[in-house]
């Protein structure tokens, strides 16, 4: 049954993003698929983040984050930033700071710079709503990476319950 529920949830479509966080000089970034636009006016994005991630503390302290859109040829970056921050994950990629100071990957397809608007608990995650204050398309020729093309990179197949 667990596999059936996992297969069911794999029918939902998601992109793949690297979320950049920074508090002062301390920076980090992690891969996320649970991210979507939720308002036109104001422009709002919603991100579901596991509060155990080391990025969570940085995000809630600084109240800013970036959303870096990965392209189809950046599966390696999805894997790299999907690992825990044992080492400085940003040391091996090119990045810069834009308006909010959160890390922006210069090789991303596009980025959004966000200020934390509000958040609420969402089961074993927290739903973070960010107001978009800046952003740009960085590689107009690239196509976005789809979550379904990452296979079980996030190990989520074993996280689904056996029953509803
Ligand atoms: C393809 C993929 C999608 C992921 N989506 C999310 C997500 O939407 N939310 C989340 O909290 N973690 C997600 N993760 C897990 C984090 O990227 C991972 O736990 C990471 O190690 C957290 O990094 P940190 O501890 O340095 O903050 C995803 C991982 C992968 C590989």
Draw up the topology in text:
Elements: H1 2-9, E1 17-23, E2 26-32, E3 35-39, E4 44-49, H2 54-62, E5 64-69, H3 75-81, E6 95-97, E7 103-105, E8 110-122, E9 125-137
Antiparallel strand pairs: 1-2, 1-5, 3-4, 4-9, 5-8, 6-7, 8-9
The chain binds flavin mononucleotide (FMN).
Flavin mononucleotide is lined by residues 16, 28, 30-34, 48-50, 53-55, 78, 82-85, 125, 150, 153-154.
Rg calculated over all Cα atoms: 15 Å
The H-and-E topology, N to C, reads as HEEEEHEHEEEE
Query: Strand share of the residues?
Result: 35-45%
- Strand line-up in the sheet with most strands: 2-1-5-8-9-4-3
Major sheet size, sense and barrel closure: 7 strands, antiparallel
Count of separate DSSP helical elements: 3
State the secondary-structure class: mainly beta
In this entry the ligands are:
flavin mononucleotide
Helix content: 10-25%
Distance between the termini: 9 Å
- Uncertain ranges: none
Descriptors:
two-stranded antiparallel sheet, binds flavin mononucleotide, mainly beta, 164 residues
């Amino acid at each position: 049954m667990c596999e059936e529920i996992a297969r069911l949830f794999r029918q939902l479509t998601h992109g793949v993003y690297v979320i950049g966080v920074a508090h002062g000089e301390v920076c980090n970034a992690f891969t996320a698929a649970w991210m979507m636009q939720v308002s036109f006016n104001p422009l709002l994005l919603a991100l579901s983040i596991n509060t155990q991630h080391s990025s969570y503390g940085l995000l809630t302290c600084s109240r800013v984050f970036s959303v870096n859109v990965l392209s189809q040829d950046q599966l390696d970056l999805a894997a790299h930033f999907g690992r825990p921050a044992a080492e400085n994950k940003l040391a091996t990629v090119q990045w810069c700071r834009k308006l909010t100071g959160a890390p922006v990957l210069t090789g991303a397809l596009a980025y959004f710079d966000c200020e934390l608007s509000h958040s609420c608990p969402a089961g074993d995650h927290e739903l973070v709503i960010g107001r978009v204050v800046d952003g740009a398309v960085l590689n107009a020729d690239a196509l976005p990476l789809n979550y379904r093309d990452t296979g079980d990179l996030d190990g989520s197949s074993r996280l689904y319950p056996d029953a509803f």
